[in-house]
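Hello forum,

I keep getting stuck at the same step: I have a sequence, I want structure tokens, and every attempt I make locally crashes halfway through. Rather than fight my setup again tonight, could one of you with a working pipeline run this one for me? It's a single chain of 379 residues.
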Amino acid sequence: MKAPQFVPIILAGGSGTRLWPVSRMSYPKQFCELLDDTLLNKTIHRLQEFGSPYLLTSKHLAPLSERALLENKISKEYLLVEPEAKNTAAAISYLCELYKDQPDTIVGIFPSDHWVENHKKFTADITKAIQFAKSNKSLVLIGVKPTSPTSAYGYIEVNKNKVSQFIEKPSIDQAKILISKSNIFWNSGIFIASIGFLRSSFETYSPKFIQAFVGKSVQDAYKSLPKNSFDFEIVEKLDNIDFVQASFEWSDLGSWDQLIENYGGSVAKTYEVDAKNNTVVTSRTKSTGFIGVNDLLVVDTKDALLISKKGETQKVKLLVDKMILENDRRAIDPVKELRGWGEFCVLEEEDTFKVKKVKVLSGQSISYQSHKSRQEHWI
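Reply #2:
Ran it on my machine without issues. Output:
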């Protein structure tokens, strides 16, 4: 059978702590309905112009990824599962192992949780990048023209359509200087290259990522792989990187500040007295009042509440780290949890009982339960 010329791959294994309390470690942002649909579904839709995309995810997120494929009428054969999450270098080296007999196949590696506006322009830019990867036998990056100085993104410097330098998350003062230059772009995290080019790059700069799979199972190979990014292990060492400037609008939605910047103000009714520029996210059924305070962001869920000054929401990850140190499960598990077979929501919980609402999707089933130390009642 002839190998496909281009294969879109979505990396869907991120931990999702930066948009807590909506996004949790066991329910990261790509699966959350933050907007009118999940970010993963939006990514799948725009990539279907190139054929059904594969989802590459970690073992503990496989059920959620499989459900996303089911919702989009894509076979579960398009699910690729890593034994454990070990960052993007391990994930892409695993792709090299899976496609090692197809060195000429071009793969596009896409984040699952980014926002893109204008799918037609996106398709045209990716098509151009594929052509570069074929003709130049190179890695191709998509760069986005900065719209404001931010320390949330990595930057790339371009010289005659080649990437000449990487600048990782500069300070705001540095970012102000960078964006004044015409050859500076945000790094979108999208990579286009042939399997052969990726394998040879690993063999040259980080051979352990290829050697780990020789004569071993995937599970054993992963045990020896470090948790490093593809950018760190490979991309920043290459001298043959082509560049395509994005004509589409883009954000990685890496903080609540970025989300409200792209999607506007409160989703529920708010009232302000001697207050201004306050925003409430997700509390659609509550009216919220602000008195004597400015520039606050409030994210309200059933079991958790986040209050942050705008411009400071990049620190949410530090907050989640503190919660994990104190074994607070609300850093990890949401009240509503999705499963491959459906979902459940915790309605009430105390030390002696828990009440759940369970939804089973049509055609799906759940296993029988047996417990020695508690009783279950189903209605």
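The mean pLDDT is 88. If your local run keeps crashing, start a new thread with the error log.
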